[in-house]
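Example 9 (inverse folding). The structure is encoded as follows.
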């Protein structure tokens, strides 16, 4: 059995090996890390819609369980603002984003280090503080208003990836006051469901328009947490919701597809409910009510024009010297006969085509024979 002194010596040896390992890994990253791109390729021009994704400042803060979103999004942005006040713990390693040697660092510092290795072309701005305090909230408002790529310009989009209602309400208040479009997201405490929500102040419901019970009842959420009990953490659910959030961000910023106003995810049933919530005229947030009035005024001044479908004119040839007519070569009955039976499908799914049933072959068949091919050919010549 080893003595106490021998064990202490072994511990010091292991600590020294760990330090050398970290230094070696850091030097390898400096040597093998991807160099920053100084000049865009000729294919990346203003006419290319995908170039927009390299010009968008995005604002993130307090993602706690959303490292997957950061990792997915960091490859297509030019400026990334990060806000959080927690430190990296070993319990965060299940995010597959933070690394064990980053334990003890602030999350924004660790995230910047990881993301910079992924894409050194992104400019990072990190803030290690709690956004719910008065001074920090004022600074947060300033960065939303003036934190864009151009000095004095607002950010293009705010993404809320927080894990508590207090921070969500702070973000909601800031965006309502500034008229800033943002996306809210979250995962349930049992870690098997989540959601994303696009919030356009004045046009859609804000977080205070239809708040959870804990917010509506003015309950201090700190009283709901039990000592020594942590909410469930399931990286797969977080990864799915983070991917849905990023996909919605790309559709909104690049202008393709249908942007989801609210999209839920139920992992137990693989169910994705979607809906759109209108703003509540009796919302407790006065800035939300003000934004609603401004939105109504804009709608009155500039009503949306309904798209009028133009009827396609039928081309009529008055002269038909040769009497040519276009007729269908296949009748409806023939098409029906060529199709197979349609299976019972759930709502929303249609069939592209069906496979007709095989018909039994009728008629005479050739009997098997022991004759060779040459003998058969000779017999045919005599016929």
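The amino acid assigned to each position is listed next.
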């Amino acid at each position: 059995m080893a003595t106490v002194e021998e064990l202490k010596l072994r511990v010091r040896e292991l600590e020294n090996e760990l330090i050398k390992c970290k230094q070696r890994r850091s030097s390898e990253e400096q040597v093998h890390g991807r160099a920053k791109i100084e000049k865009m390729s000729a294919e990346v021009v203003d006419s290319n819609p995908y170039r927009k994704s390299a010009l968008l400042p995005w604002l993130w803060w307090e993602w706690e369980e959303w490292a997957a979103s950061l990792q997915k999004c960091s490859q297509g942005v030019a400026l990334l603002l990060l806000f959080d006040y927690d430190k990296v713990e070993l319990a965060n390693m299940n995010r597959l984003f933070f690394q064990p040697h980053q334990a003890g660092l602030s999350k924004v510092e660790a995230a910047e280090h990881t993301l910079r290795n992924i894409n050194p072309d992104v400019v990072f701005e990190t803030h290690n503080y709690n956004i719910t305090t008065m001074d920090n909230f004022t600074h947060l408002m300033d960065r939303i208003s003036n934190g864009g790529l151009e000095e004095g310009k607002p950010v293009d989009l705010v993404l809320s990836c927080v894990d508590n209602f207090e921070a969500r309400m702070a973000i909601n208040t800031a965006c309502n006051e500034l008229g800033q479009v943002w996306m809210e997201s979250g995962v349930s405490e049992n870690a098997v469901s989540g959601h994303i929500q696009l919030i356009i102040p004045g046009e859609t419901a804000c977080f205070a328009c239809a708040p959870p019970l804990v917010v509506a009842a003015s309950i201090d959420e700190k009283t709901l947490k039990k000592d020594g009990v942590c909410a469930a953490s399931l990286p797969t659910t977080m990864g799915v919701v983070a991917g849905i959030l990023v996909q919605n961000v790309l559709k909104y910023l690049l202008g393709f597809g249908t942007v989801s106003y609210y999209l839920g995810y139920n992992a137990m049933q693989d169910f994705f409910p979607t809906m759109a919530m209108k703003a509540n005229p009796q919302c407790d947030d006065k800035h939300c009510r003000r934004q609603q009035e401004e939105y109504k005024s804009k709608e009155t001044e500039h009503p949306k024009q309904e798209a009028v479908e133009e009827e396609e004119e039928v081309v009529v040839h008055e002269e038909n010297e040769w009497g040519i007519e276009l007729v269908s070569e296949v009748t409806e009955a023939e098409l029906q006969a060529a199709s197979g039976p349609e299976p019972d499908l759930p709502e929303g799914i249609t069939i592209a085509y069906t496979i007709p049933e095989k018909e039994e072959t009728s008629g005479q068949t050739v009997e098997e024979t022991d004759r060779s091919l040459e003998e058969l050919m000779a017999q045919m010549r005599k016929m």
